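Discussion board: Methods & Data

I've been asked by a reviewer to show the raw model output for two of the constructs in my manuscript, not just the figures. I'm not sure how much to include, so I'm pasting the format here to get opinions. Each protein appears as its amino acid sequence followed by a line of discrete structure tokens. Is this the kind of thing reviewers expect to see in a supplement, or should I convert it first? Here is construct A:
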Amino acid sequence: MPLCLAEPVVKIHCPDFDLAQTLDCGQCFRWEMLEDGSFSGIAFGKYCRVSQEGDTISFFDITPEDFNALWRSYFDLDRDYGALKERLSQNPILAEAARFAPGIRILHQDHWEALCSFILSQNNNIKRIKGLVRRLCEQFGEPVEGGYAFPSAHRLAELSPDDLGPVRCGFRAKYLVDAARKVASGQINLTQVETMDVETARETLMQIHGVGPKVAECALLYGFGRMKCCPMDVWMKKCVTTLYPQGLPACTQGIEGIAQQYLFHYSRCHPQLFGQK
């Protein structure tokens, strides 16, 4: 993928990528659209502002070294999504879902942040999840350029559920604290989870109170890059029950998580598929 530098902007040409579709499809919660149409966010403790014009993506106030060390992988820019969409389009429903939001990519987020974000996502909508994550970072994260880093497991392990009162995360507070204590103590080693087979990784994450199959699948897909993981939220359960009662088609094998993202976004934007207005 070609990269050019016109200080202080790193620009890349990247087809099959849409910032708005990628950053507002329910897989991450720390990006905001600015008045000029660009997006700003913090990942791995680093601030980024990024904009798009056609197939050109511009990253502001970063060096090529920073881009290659972090943002290239974070946005999954080296994966050929055009080829993946062609493969998935063997199925007419997936073909339509991919045409609806052809620019979605799966972000490679921080393990710990993704795990906590999807613990907070339970019984919630995207707007409220963003508020919870923002308040958690403001209250307990380290100040960085552009805002606050996501608080570490060690920082949250020092707290009680009551200490999380200002975050207003309700019953989820005890789950966050349990996750933090198990990760900080080494009982659950997220670096080891990265190399486990998917079944063992899922079972390991589910040792945390409040982490069931859906939260574990989300963490593995969005935080560990496990593309075969397929989170089953309310929309995906409706989608599979209505459109794929025999299970996802063979063309999704090994990339079920990517297929899921197209289907999730399409289903959420087309509730009439399921008899809803």
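Construct B, same format:
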Amino acid sequence: MRKKWIAGLLAALALSLGGCSSAPEDVDIDKLAAELAEKVSFTDELAQIDDGMISMVYDGLTWEDAVLYMGSGATAEEVAVFAFTDAKAARMAVQEGKAHIESQKGAFENYVPEEVKRLEGAIVQQGGRYMAVVVTEDTDTADQILKDYHFK
């Protein structure tokens, strides 16, 4: 009986430790954003946006650090990676990231309607205390890179 109890306790401990390892502990968001911008295929040429401009694009978010790459405006393509104080803040930010995508749909609907399809496939994912937003048609590559960083 005691051996079964210890075996059960060890199994539960192993499962709980396994769950912890799936969230990124410390992500270099500059590196992740650059990797996404370089390895994912984009129609437009993306450029890194100055830190002061990020709050104009993502005005509903409060973050610790952020990196944003955007195109010329002729497309909705972008890469954004944010660091928050904790996983709870990042989880809440996912809703703001999705709201940003919805806002972009409204903006592009009359301006460049073809971009709405790209926005409908946008990636908004959380990994621990981080959130990433990627607007591209090359979602498979973006998903794989984010998966490598333990985003979901």
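Answer (T.O., handling editor elsewhere):
This is acceptable in a supplement if you add a one-line summary per construct. For B, something like: Residues 87-111 form the longest helix (25 residues).
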